[in-house]
Design goal:
about 400 residues, mainly beta, five-stranded antiparallel β-sheet, three-stranded antiparallel β-sheet, about 5% helix
Length: about 400
């Protein structure tokens, strides 16, 4: 992870894109407005002006009672009632009672209370990726481990909602960095060059039941590997990000789409936001695509599906590792700081999804032990909380450690 010189940080570049008009119902009828006193109209105008996306959707202070970890959180997935996390931690502490419980690199919290659950399938090394089946509730795990729940599972395995390791065993040759579950199939991305003993460079599709390689899907990266995958808005393509320069020998620098049916890359090849980018994370909202990037400094960048150019990009002085979007705001996590978007931001920031302009929201995450910016590596922007995982030790100078939940704001 490279850090750029401070002089490179802070540029926001907006490229033109045709956007359809948005129609909304008026706040009140014209007759109602006419009947209001002039002073009250002025007050309403001031409130509306301040209610633009400047406050973000979440409070900048996390709730005080939940569980935190003693090591970095690299992966997170949220279901209707649970929060699953993975990383390098070996214990979880209840912030209200200070009770410390062993959890080796995997843990689950109650979504409503934030308290630790009994789910405890230990991994013997770092977890980097998590995905959950919406049908079976099975949790698919990727990372650097060799065993899962004491069972041999090199770099990938699966666990039931009760914590039992399943028979799923795709056997990738190296680290899995991301996973997406689609029906009875699981797509994998990572640093591997083989899956199940068959050549697969950076991308693969396997059975959600057994982990057996689906040989009909052949999307191989060259010049680098795939670090991030996400479903495209059309429902038939898979977005792929990484540090590759080609897929199936077709030039695609760092970002591409491939057909979910067989892995054939599409013609979409947007102009890169930087010369040596690395795409670490991808999220979508409709046809909008948001990426977390590293390289010569870090950046968050917005694209539209099929667009020849990026819409905007906003720079930092360290890599951006993860992004999340909700209510017209993009939350950006990474190990940047003190500079992001030309202002002081440490590891977590909010920008307008439309323009890419930095917003005032600033929870000010910190580090310890000589590492001021250990990073934010996982985000989930949910209806109840913005959930943040990483290596940070403090928020605005105060504990918690490495995991925090920011409540929805006014």
């Amino acid at each position: 992870m490279r850090r750029a010189a401070p002089t490179e940080a802070g540029s926001v570049r907006v490229k033109p894109h045709r956007v359809a008009a948005i129609h909304e119902e008026p706040l009140m009828s014209r007759r109602g407005i006419r009947q209001l006193p002039i002073v009250l109209l002025a007050a309403i105008g001031a409130v509306l002006a301040s209610a633009t996306p400047s406050l973000a959707s979440y409070l900048p202070t996390p709730r005080s009672s939940y569980s935190v970890t003693n090591g970095t959180v690299y992966a997170m997935v949220v279901t209707s009632d649970r929060v699953y996390i993975g990383g390098s931690f070996t214990a979880v502490t209840n912030t209200a009672t200070s009770q410390r419980t062993t959890r080796n690199r995997l843990a689950a919290f109650d979504r409503a209370t934030g308290q630790l659950l009994d789910w405890a399938p230990a991994a013997d090394n770092t977890v980097r990726a998590l995905a959950v089946s919406g049908v079976t509730g099975t949790v698919y795990v990727g990372g650097e481990f060799a065993t899962l729940g004491g069972v041999p599972r090199a770099f990938a395995g699966a666990v039931t909602s009760d914590g039992a390791v399943t028979a799923w065993n795709p056997s990738p040759g190296k680290v899995v960095r991301d996973a997406v579950v689609v029906g009875d199939q699981v797509y994998l991305a990572g640093r591997f060059g083989s899956v199940g003993g068959r050549t697969r460079q950076g991308l693969a599709r396997v059975s959600a039941d057994t982990g057996a390689l689906d040989t009909s899907f052949t999307a191989n990266t060259t010049g680098g590997k795939a670090f991030a995958i996400a479903l495209a808005a059309n429902g038939t393509d898979l977005l792929v990000g990484g540090n590759f320069t080609a897929i199936n020998d077709q030039p695609h620098a760092f970002l591409a789409t491939v057909a979910m049916s067989d892995g054939t890359p599409s013609s979409w090849s947007p102009a890169p936001a930087c010369s040596t980018c690395e795409v670490f994370h991808i999220v979508t909202e409709g046809t909008a695509i948001y990426t977390a990037m590293g390289g010569p400094g870090g950046r968050a960048t917005k694209y539209f599906a099929g667009g020849a150019n990026y819409v905007w990009t906003i720079r930092g002085d360290g890599d951006v590792q993860t992004v999340a979007v909700r209510d017209g705001i993009v939350y950006v996590g990474g190990h940047y700081g003190p500079s992001f978007g030309g202002s002081v931001r440490h590891q977590l920031a909010a920008v307008s999804a439309d323009s890419g302009q930095l917003l005032p929201w600033n929870p000010n995450l910190g580090g310890a032990g000589g590492n001021d910016h250990p990073g934010v590596w996982a985000l989930s922007a949910d209806s109840d909380f913005l959930r943040v995982g990483g290596g940070f030790d403090t928020v605005a100078g105060v504990a918690p450690s490495r995991y925090a939940e920011f409540p929805t704001g006014p």
